[in-house]
Amino acid sequence: MLDNPxxxxxxxxxxxxxxxxxxxxxxxREAAQRIYDLPFNELLFRAQCVHRSSFDPxxxxxxxxxxxxxxxxPEDCSYCSQSSRYETGLKASKMMALExxxxxARAAKANGATRxxxxxxxxxxxxxxxxxxLDMVREVKEMGLETCMTLGMLTDEDVxxxxxxxxxxxxxxxxxxxxxxxxxxxxxxFADRIETLxxxxxxxxxxxxxxxxxxxxxxxxxxDMLVTLANLPEHPDSVPINMLMAIEGTPLEGAAKVDGIAxxxxxxxxxxxxxxxxxxxSAGRSEMSDELQAWCFFAGANSIFCGEQLLTxxxxxxxxxxxxxxxxGLKAEAGG
Length: 336
Ligand code: SAM
Ligand code: DTB
Ligand code: SF4
What we know:
Number of helices: 12
Largest sheet: 10 strands, parallel
Structural class: alpha/beta
Bound molecules: S-adenosylmethionine, 6-(5-methyl-2-OXO-imidazolidin-4-yl)-hexanoic acid, iron/sulfur cluster
């Protein structure tokens, strides 16, 4: 005879400190590792229980990306197509005109996106760029979309300006564990990233922060990265989990593929440790099977990037996603 699996899972979840509203900021690597290492069925069942306590399990948020300033970036992020240090064949371009950004936002809205995420290939914005960026925030917001920007490191002045323009979210990923970080990026530190996240949070802008799997990191690095996010003073509102899209010409062009089961485990761990955050199944979906994506949704991912392009790389596009949502009986979250 089987024990009552639901009660068992709830009791175990409570041992892990994730019962009721489930917000904890004192995760240890050991506690996280124990969850990550659970038998797969057990882990997914627990993640699904946690997921259902805060979210409708059949609704997925759709966000659309736009690169408002592409390429020519001075930073050396080893995974990135936009760093000027690598020959990736990407053509650098100037900042996009406001009307083009709004055109993209209108199309995104028509496709069911509720958030528009605008990214620039900068170490951080220059003061001279800010007026145009702030206009984009104001006008996209005016269209009834949530606004998100990812512009690199921010100063106090930058966050104050973004806040007063009404920016809803700022994306800045920790990318990997503190230990592994310097293997991937040398032009700014893990501490720099945490500092920008702190500024954003203190200014009252919602935080979007996650990372990438597939940079050559170990399971322990993946767990440490998620523990860092879960132990921030507030859990990020959105946690994008990217699977590396290996870009030709970057130092990581030949990186080994991430094991799908390990990827699902990371999603489940993010869901359990940050029960009220949107966990976004981010870059890499164009190389994932429907089955792998389905497992990610079951493990607690409830947000995706929609559209045919991420910033510079491919994404499945509307037709493929419509089909996937229909097969899985998922619906897109309604806009405000
Ligand atoms: N330049 C800004 C910055 O780095 O903060 C904003 C844009 S940057 C491209 C945003 C994030 O996208 C990175 O932090 C990284 O997590 C993710 N990303 C970039 N290239 C990727 C790739 N090839 N595969 C997966 N994720 C990637
Ligand atoms: C995030 O975590 N992933 C997005 C968004 N935040 C800015 C970017 C993914 C980029 C994938 C590679 C590319 O398009 O160049
Ligand atoms: Fe530049 Fe951002 Fe790419 Fe790093 S991830 S090289 S900062 S665009």
